[in-house]
Structure formats: C-alpha cells, structure tokens
C-alpha cells in the first residue's frame, strides 16, 4: 500500500487516517468523568495511557489486560471510538467509567464537549529533540504515516512544522497556554516520568483521584516499565498490521537524550537557534539536559 500524503487541514498537517472521522470527533459527547490523554505524537502517550489504565482497572478488570490491546482500551478520539465506549453496545465485562480516551489533536481541535463537561485532561510533553527522533523512527516503521525521508529531511520538516498534527512547537505551547484558562489539565513531562516514575504516578493519582495501596502502586510501576511494556503484546503494538517492527520497534529505546546519537553538531546548533526563536514568547520549560544545552 502507498504511504498516505500529508495535507493541510484547517492549517494543520494531517493524513486522511485522522480526518476521515472528523464530524464524529467534533460531535463527540464527552461525559464529566472522561479522562482525555493528550500528546504530540511520540511524547509518551502509550506509557501514560497504560499507567492510567492500570490505576483504574488493573484490580477490577485484570482479564481485560490480557485480552484487549491497550489501543482498544484507550482509543483514539480522532480515529474511532469503539461501540462499547460510546455506550451503544453493552459489553458488560468492560468498564465504561471513567472512559480513558487519547488524542493527538492540537488544543484548538478538541471537541468542545470536553471543555463544557470540565473533563480532566492529562497532557504529556517530551523535549523537542527526542520527540523528533522518536517521530522519525515511527515514520519509518508505520506505513500509515507519510514517508519520513532521511533524517536530515525529516528534521527540517519537523522544524518547519510539516508533520502530522502540526508543529511540535505550537502543540506544546498552545496546550500549555490552555492551562491558564482551563485548570483541569495536568501537564506532565516524559523526562520526569523517566527520572522518577513513582513520584509522577503519585501526582497523576492525586489529579485523577486514585488511591492505590503500596502493593498496587508497585504493580503499576513494574507493569509499566519499558522492558515489561516492550515484551507485552497488549502494549507493544505488535498486533497492529500497518507497523513493521523489523524496521524499528514501537517500543524503541525509551530514553532521554537519544537525540545525541542522531543530531550532528551542525544540526543541533541549527535546531537550537531555531528553537530559541520559536519558543521565545513561551514560559514552558523542559527541565532536561536538552534545555540546559539550549541555555
Ligand atoms: P522512543 O522512540 O524514543 O523509544 P507514544 O506512545 O506517544 O507513541 O511514544 C512512544 C515513545 O515512548 C517511544 O519512544 C517509546 O519507546 C516510549 N515509551 C513507551 N513506553 C515507555 C515506557 N514504559 N518507558 C519509557 N519509554 C516508553
């Protein structure tokens, strides 16, 4: 099958895959207890989805963890909400509250119902350089993504915002700004999760209102480690036919700073200059070694 083309949709790079269901998406009726997990692609969506899924349903629906892939338990708002989640199909064995829903939509495209219902939103951001590297490899292995080209080409496109779901810069900044007017957003960072997953899980728990026992929390921590998720068929995306894990596994490295093995010195300098320009009006700070190297 040919790779899909990137096209501009209301000014944002998209593929058909994510726009075909646009009307349903925009008309989506959120419920007050829905939890939306919002990210720029490759910022840690799967990781945070699994943490929240285990926190909510690990104890009550353990059978589901083994039989339903994570991407069906935490579906994509902009692709397809399974019937059991929309409530039109009664699948009694599946929990329907809270509904965990993920999205890569830039904040201005989020269906208004989420704001009207004052839903909780967990936004995950990842530093630009690692995010770009991860997105590049994802483009290589996922036939539903536009052809990424070589690394240099991809990096230039990333800087130019010619990406599915638009520029990284706008995405992280506009979601950050949203927090100023809509307080029910927990804005978190991939780098913090790597540094201290226990602490980040505690913070997530207080935001969503979970109080796991020490034993439960330990199980969540263990189950959501990179190594465990990489070997878990329900979380590693090996059940998805459009992805070729021989080219690059979905669970690729799971590290902070892998950009150093990809960026040349010249690319890094060029990127930093451009980054400073694009982020100059932003109060958003990535507390990582990447940020330090930009200071
Ligand atoms: P890398 O390509 O850098 O390895 P998303 O889920 O948003 O598509 O993000 C995927 C990225 O998150 C990949 O990054 C993947 O390896 C990483 N990831 C997924 N689960 C992880 C975990 N448990 N720990 C650390 N990184 C994880």
From TrEMBL:
One of its GO terms (molecular function) is sulfotransferase activity. Its EC number is 2.8.2.-. Keywords: Catecholamine metabolism, Cytoplasm, Transferase. It comes from the Eukaryota. One of its GO terms (biological process) is xenobiotic metabolic process. Residues 32-282 form the Sulfotransferase domain. InterPro entries: P-loop_NTPase, Sulfotransferase_dom. Its main location: cytoplasm. Belongs to the sulfotransferase 1 family. This is Sulfotransferase. It comes from Sphaeramia orbicularis (orbiculate cardinalfish). The lineage of its organism: Eukaryota, Metazoa, Chordata, Craniata, Vertebrata.
């Amino acid at each position: 099958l040919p790779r899909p083309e990137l096209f501009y949709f209301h000014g944002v790079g998209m593929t058909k895959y994510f726009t075909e269901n646009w009307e349903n998406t925009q008309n989506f009726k959120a419920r007050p207890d829905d939890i939306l997990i919002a990210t720029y692609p490759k910022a840690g969506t799967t990781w945070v989805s699994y943490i929240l899924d285990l926190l909510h349903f690990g104890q009550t629906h353990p059978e589901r963890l083994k039989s339903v892939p994570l991407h069906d338990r935490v579906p994509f708002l902009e692709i397809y909400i399974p019937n059991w989640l929309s409530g039109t199909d009664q699948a009694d064995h599946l929990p329907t509250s809270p509904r965990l829903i993920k999205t890569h939509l830039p904040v201005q495209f989020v269906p208004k119902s989420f704001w009207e219902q004052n839903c909780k939103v967990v936004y995950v951001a990842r530093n630009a350089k690692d995010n770009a590297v991860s997105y590049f490899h994802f483009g290589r292995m996922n036939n539903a993504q536009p052809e990424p080209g070589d690394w240099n080409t991809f990096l230039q496109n990333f800087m130019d915002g010619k990406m599915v779901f638009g520029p990284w810069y706008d995405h992280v900044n506009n979601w950050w700004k949203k927090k100023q007017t809509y307080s029910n957003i927990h804005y978190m960072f991939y780098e913090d999760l790597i540094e201290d997953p226990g602490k980040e899980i505690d913070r997530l728990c207080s935001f969503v209102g979970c109080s796991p026992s020490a034993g439960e929390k330990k199980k969540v921590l263990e189950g959501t480690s990179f190594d465990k998720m990489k070997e878990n068929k329900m979380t590693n995306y090996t059940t998805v036919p459009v992805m070729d894990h021989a080219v690059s596994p979905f669970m690729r490295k799971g590290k902070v700073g892998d950009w150093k093995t990809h960026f040349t010195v010249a690319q890094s300098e060029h990127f930093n200059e451009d980054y400073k320009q694009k982020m100059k009006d932003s109060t958003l700070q990535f507390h990582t070694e990447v940020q330090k190297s930009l200071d």
